[in-house]
Fold this protein.
Amino acid sequence: MTTTKKTTTKAKSSTKKTVARTKTNPTVVKDTIPDLPINPFAFEVLNAASKQRSKANKVKVLQKYSHPSIKALMIWNFDDTVVSLLPPGEVPYATNLEDETATGTLSEKINDAVDKMSELRTTSLGSQDQGQASIRKEFTKFYNFIKGGNDSLSGLRRETMFINILQGLHPLEAEILILVKDKDLDTKYNISRDVVSQAYPDITWGGRS
């Protein structure tokens, strides 16, 4: 009887050690830095960075696809001294004619397009694509929409210019601009100012208005 108990005890002890060894050597799943197309859309870069689970890999994605347009978005969104001169919230249609022939707002139209892409699991809407332009091409105009950039513009002219840019962009690019003007980019993309600062140490924060 004594021998049996000892054997059983040893078996249990061995099992516990095996379990303990298993727990101390978990399988490590590494994030991979995706290969994006040449001259990727801003939404492709932000989405790739946002999906990374570690801060280090978020930084790597932003560095790998670094471009002045991405930095401009980050500064507009995260620098408190950058003051938007555009009305907060939803963006209306550009003209009275469009208001008469369509319901809702331009913001809602963009959101509908983004939702449809999500349902189809594709970033292309085929014939419905707005995508003739990109943030990469349009970012040099951003100064018109912030305090101290082009204060000679009238409010109406500034808003019309912004709306015209939105209407020419891919819906996911347009969505980014609407978020950034209200400093709400992190409500959609899991990217923080700290990550941006590590990715782009050349950005000087503050003193812009």
Summary: The longest helix spans residues 2-24.
